[in-house]
Amino acid sequence: MPDTDMLDRLIRTPARTDDDVVDLVTALVERPITRQCWVLFLDERAVPVSFVMPISDLPWRPDEHVEDFAALVGDVLVQVGAAEVVLVWERPGESRLFPVDWEWVDACACAFEEHHVRLRAQVAVHTGGVAIVSLDDVEPVDDGPLPLAS
User: Fold this and answer.
1) Per residue in 8-46, pLDDT tens?
2) Separation CA 116–CA 128 (nearest Å)
3) With contact defined as beta carbons under 8 Å apart, do 145 and 42 qualify?
4) Which of 96, 85, 84 is nearest to 32 (CA)?
5) How crowded is the C-beta side of 139, counted as CA atoms within 13 Å?
6) What is the DSSP string of 51-120?
7) Each residue's pLDDT tens digit, 44-83
8) End-to-end distance of the chain based on CA atoms, in angstroms?
9) Which helix (H) or strand (E) holds 27?
10) Which of 62, 87, 90, 127 is the most exposed place for a label (fewest CB within 10 A)?
């Protein structure tokens, strides 16, 4: 059960730093239950908008519909008056992301940029905790899991 007092405080507090984003995500998605993506919207002051969009039916691998996903998020961003988004990748099980997860991170970063959607951060929620995902820190390995940014 989420700590509602903490959640109430966090939804009124700007998420300006990576630690603020991790705290917000931790309060919203306590533990990973299913493989899905959450889209969090932040206003121009980085305060969370009271609209969260869970997406549980994304295909296993990114495909041509990543552009549709980015366009949808861009439309919702305008409708809710947000300025930027946080993508949260919920992954039960492993405490690392697999190459397919990194494909999603990369594909969304590119598609969101093309659709002029400001991506504040991408965050992974897994059994090992919550962490900001940074493509700059990834070194390709064989088909095993890849480390998260610390």
Assistant:
1) 676 788 999 999 999 999 999 888 999 999 999 999 999
2) 32
3) no
4) 96
5) 0
6) EEEEE----SS--TTHHHHHHHHHHHHHHTT-SEEEEEEE--S-SSB-HHHHHHHHHHHHHHHHTT--EE
7) 999 999 999 999 988 999 999 999 999 999 999 999 999 9
8) 26
9) helix 18-28
10) 127
* CB within 8 Å of 33: residues ≥ 6 apart: 90, 92
- Provide the whole-model pTM: 0.86
Three-class secondary structure of residue 49 per DSSP: strand
| Angle (nearest 5°) at CA 122 between 135 and 5 | 150
3-class secondary structure, 12 = coil
- Asked if 32 and 133 count as a contact pair (C-beta separation under 8 A), the reply is no
| CA geometry: angle 140, 144, 146, nearest 5 deg | 55
In 10 A of CB 148, how many CB atoms? 21
Rounded to whole angstroms, the Cα distance separating 108 from 37 reads 11
